Amino acid sequence: IIISYLKKVKFITICLLCQLFVMAQWNTERILTIGQNALYFEDYVLSIQYFNQVIKIKPYLAEPYLNRAIAKIQLGDYQGADQDCTEAIKINPFLPQAYYARGFARRKMNFFTEAIADFSKALEFSPNSLYLLINRMDARDKNKDYEGATSDIDIYLKLSPKTYSLLYEKGRIQLELKD
User: Fold this and answer.
1) pLDDT at 23 over 50
2) Which of 66, 99, 121, 151 has the fewest CB atoms within 10 Å, i.e. is most exposed?
């Protein structure tokens, strides 16, 4: 009777442990969702705390690193955002948002060459992204790569021909080129 009782206790314990692992999976997804909601509602410090929890439990996921980087950008921590994006890219090199966020952070830190490389990599995944083009154009302009900036403006105008404000930028850049 005692052996039978111990077998039942072992069985129940194993079942409870399995249930606990299933709940842990569900909780990390929920914590990530709560962090994303906090990010959406512009509570960046709180969202970072939630993303830290997910990273502690599942450091092999790229999404919490990327989301934490976005929150850090909003708080002005561009170096921390750069590090988080780099980690997200190591985990999943097919995230154009990570390249975009890292390029944005690097542009803010005046690392224009690196920012251009990140925007160019993101454009490989999203070649028609006007946001990526305008950011790369700005980084090229600040890096004094005026021909590259003009090329980006031309591509932008082909994708969005009614954007007349960029004609001013193109003229300003052509003045820099003494054209």
Assistant:
1) no
2) 151
- What does the pLDDT look like over 108-139, one tens digit per residue? 999 999 999 999 999 999 999 999 999 999 99
Q: How far apart are CA 100 and CA 115, in angstroms?
A: 9
Task: Report DSSP letters for the chain, one per residue.
Answer: -HHHHHHHHHHHHHHHHHHHHHHHHHHHHHHHHHHHHHHHTT-HHHHHHHHHHHHHH-TT-SHHHHHHHHHHHHHT-HHHHHHHHHHHHHH-TT-HHHHHHHHHHHHHTT-HHHHHHHHHHHHHH-TT-HHHHHHHHHHHHHTT-HHHHHHHHHHHHHH-TT-THHHHHHHHHHHHTT-
